Amino acid sequence: MPDYEREGRPHPGRAIVTYGRSLMSLVIARSLDEQGVEVIGCDDVSMTVLSFSRHVEQTFTHASLDDDPEQALNDIEEAVRKYAPDDDRPYVLIPAFRDAKLFAEHRDRFEPLIKVAAPDFSSIEKVHPKDVFADFVEEAGVPAPATKVLPAGDRDVEALGELTFPLIAKPNDGVGGRGVEKIGDEAGLRDYLSRARAQDAILLQEVVEGKDYCVSFVAVQGQLVGVVAYHNLTQFPREAGAGASRETVDAAPFRAATEKLVRATKWNGVAEIDFRWDGNPGSQPKVIELNPRYWAGLFHSTASGVDFPWIAYRIAAGLPVRHAPDEDVKVGFQSRTPGAWIMSAAQEVAASDEHMQESASAWEEARERISKGEVLGALAKLMKTASLPAHGGETLARFKAELEKYDDLPSELNSDDDPDVGLGVLFALSSLVRHGKLPPEFKFEVKEDAEPERTASRRPGPVSAEYAPRHPVIGITKPSNGDTLSWMAMAFAVRLAGGKPVKITSRAPRDPHSIDGLLFGGGADVFPERYQGEVKQGYSYDQARDDMETSWAKAALEHEIPVLGVCRGMQMLNVFAGGTLHHDLSAFEGAASPETFVKRIFHRKPIRITQGSRLDRASTRETECVNSIHTQAVARLGKGFRITAREPNSLVQAIEHEQAPFMMGVQFHPEFLIYRKFARNIFRDLVETARWRAAMRAHEAAQ
Q1: Which residues contact 194 (CB under 8 A, 6 or more apart)?
Q2: Per-residue DSSP letters for 196-212?
Q3: pTM to 2 decimal places
Q4: Rounded Cα–Cα distance for residues 515 and 493 (Å)
Q5: Contact assessment for residue 371 and residue 237, using Cβ atoms and an 8 Å cutoff
Q6: Cα distance between residue 20 and residue 98, in whole Å
Q7: Cβ atoms within 10 A of the Cβ of 487, count?
Q8: What is residue 396's predicted lDDT score, i.e. its pLDDT?
Q9: Over the stretch 192-244, which tens digit does the pLDDT of each residue have?
Q10: What angle do CA 206, 207, 209 make, to 5 degrees?
């Protein structure tokens, strides 16, 4: 960071950026940091994208803006005072998403402590929510589709008079394309309304022929100073959804309507307008809605040549603002959206695959889940459908080809050297801890009627769904005291896979009949005398836990309880089977790991996976990069086990039992890699095997 005082230059300032879990906040932080602004991130959860970004100095948490807005405002006001500069450098609060309206409404509470980078509340009230905007554009004479509104709690379609189908239905305050559907007839409308939340007003708009165009702009007191237009190359859902890959276009066809809205609202700050247009120079684009905040395509807009976050920061700070010339905009620039790009590719394959069309119900369910924000649940459903043996190979090959069309396009996660931001997916774990639930952006649900997947080839035929528990109970072993972070990460991974995690300790060993699956967690070294090893003087061993896990391992083999051992847990399984451990790894090249626990979590080393193993089925590659927290390793292999992964230096990284239906150990910690599908699949395999076992037991008991 430059020494501005010594160089005689004013300090660019400090900013607090909200909604730190989002990729929009990452784009904002990156933009400001590159200009020398100190960035502080916040959210109602920790472990967000911003907390892992090198562009952010510090982060803090606050109460939920949705559940307890008054306490959230109190928390943020306290933080604003705490982080206030002790000089006259600019100090700006930047709402990164839907909270822009809330902070605009409470601007007087924060200013002059900190400047709020949000449009005036009076301007926002003219265009938000969507039903208000529909009335506003009609009065302003801006071309827009005919719109009818069903008020919240009112589902009386007849009261709206005659409706022309097809039409577009959308919730009054939805974001990111969620809940937007094209409706073909009255029956389809009634079905849509039955699924919509009762507290949502519903807009019914005429279908406008053509494509969707997004116009992002920044303005100063009603004067346009920067604009970028783009359209979606692909989107998910295909009919009416968020952009998956995008391309910048000439903004000229949309400028007149945009300038008219900017002047009419006296807009001051950033926003985004959705248009629909058939591309005919003789026709006018129609305005669909105006989002009075940052938008999902912020990365694309900024990378196209207009630095929206930096301009908005300067507007709020009262600094001079330079007009962004149209010629600086890179027309033809393309980018993709992580996650949505993958879902879009999958649906493109499904739409043209006769086998996948036969599974239409699965795709309908996946689309509904996406509209509710349940992205992981949708992905799981689609992948299960795509992997049906009748057509899995062909479909997956086409899916790969579809992905490759846009694979090399830039996105928020690959545009600069900020490698750890992918760990921001762990904000969902923080949400579980702070709020007791997964956030809406990150849900994984298992259908009540879902038949347990058969991931192990040794399993017999299918079991009736009525016997399968919705959330099989997974017992996680841990020390009686401590290891809280590891427990939380393990519990989150199990919940994400559809299981119900419970603690097992030497003080609370639990009844084996209450457990469907086992997860031997990490912790202190296994007592060396169990494998003729050398006891370390002064080391605190947990022999009570050793005894407890040995008892559980015996029960697991006898009763075919699925077991996953992680780090120490794998070593315990090996010792239980008569194996031994290396207690000193210094003789192995490259085995040394960083000294601190946190650095070990982020340290990476390659492992080679044995083909045909369970770990191989969890991965798509022969080699994976994993973390390295352990200081011991498997030496002589225990009876009945085989090695399924090694490091280049030959150290064992995974084992599995050759006779037990599921008894597997991994030396690395997949719970700290949960943002990767490879790691999630390991827990998914455990939970699904436990579900199958529980269903079998229930089926046998019912006979």
Answers
A1: none
A2: S-TTS-EEEEEPPSSEE
A3: 0.60
A4: 17
A5: yes
A6: 13
A7: 19
A8: 44
A9: 999 888 888 999 999 999 999 999 999 999 999 999 999 988 765 555 555 66
A10: 140
d(CA 120, CA 265): 9
| 3-class state of residue 359 by DSSP | coil
Interval 526-554 mean pLDDT: 91
**Dist CA 697 CA 561 (whole Å):** 11
pLDDT grade for 513, boundaries at 50, 70 and 90: confident
> For the segment 21-47, what is each residue's pLDDT rounded down to a tens digit?
888 999 999 999 999 999 999 999 887
Three-class HEC string of 120-137: CHHHHHHHCCHHHHHHHH
Query: For residue 339, is pLDDT > 70?
Result: no
- Taking the C-alpha atoms of residue 591 and residue 577, their distance in angstroms, rounded to an integer, is 25
pLDDT at 631: 78
Measure the N-to-C terminal CA separation of the chain; round to a whole number of Å.
72
Of 415, 27, 399, 409, nearest to 246 by C-alpha is: 409
pLDDT at 594: 56
Q: How far is CA 666 from the centre of its chain?
A: 25
CB contact burial 346-357 (16+ within 10 A = b; e otherwise): bbbbbeebeebe
- DSSP H stretches of helix in 83-129: 100-105, 107-110, 121-127
Average pLDDT on 659-670 reads 94
CA-nearest of 81, 107, 84, 143 to 268 is 107
Rounded to whole angstroms, how far apart are CA atoms 569 and 577? 13
E-strand ranges in 278-410 read 286-291, 334-336
Which helix (H) or strand (E) is 697 found in, with range? Answer: helix 677-702
Compute the residue count for the chain. Answer: 703
The β-bridge partners of 229 are 215, 249
Average confidence (pLDDT) over 527-553: 91
d(CA 599, CA 605): 13
Number of neighbours of residue 460 by Cβ within 10 angstroms: 8
pLDDT tens per residue, range 283-338: 999 999 999 999 989 999 999 999 999 999 999 999 999 999 999 999 999 987 76
Q: Tell me, what amino acid is at 664?
A: M
Sheet holding 269-277, edge to edge: 286-291, 269-277, 211-220, 223-236, 242-249, 334-336
Encoding tokens for residue 46? 């920790």
Spatial distance between the Cα atoms of 185 and 191, rounded to a whole number of angstroms:
10
- Per-residue burial over 222-239, b if 16 or more Cβ lie within 10 Å, else e, is eebbbbbbbbbbbbbbbe
Which distant-in-sequence residues (6+ apart) come within 8 Å of 464 by Cβ?
A: 695, 699
Strands 652-657 and 563-566: unpaired
With a CB cutoff of 8 Å and minimum separation 6, the contacts of 538 are: none
CA distance 518 to 120: 55
DSSP H or E stretch at residue 142 = none
Contact predicate 579/571, CB 8 Å: no
14-17/38-43 β-pairing: parallel
Q: Residue 487: pLDDT above 90?
A: no
Q: Which token pair is 372?
A: 């509710």
Banded pLDDT at 660 (limits 50, 70, 90):
very high
Rounded to whole angstroms, the Cα distance separating 422 from 441 reads 15
How far apart, in whole angstroms, are the C-alpha atoms of residue 118 and residue 619? 45
Over the stretch 394-447, which tens digit does the pLDDT of each residue have? 544 444 454 455 556 677 666 565 555 554 555 555 555 566 565 655 443 333
Extended beta strands in 141-201, E state = 147-150, 167-171, 181-183
What is the rounded CA–CA span in Å between residue 290 and residue 135? 12
Within 13 Å of residue 165, how many CA atoms lie on the same side as its CB?
A: 10
At 271, list the tokens. Answer: 């926003």
Tokens of 231: 């359209």
Q: pLDDT tier at 482 (50, 70, 90 boundaries)?
A: confident
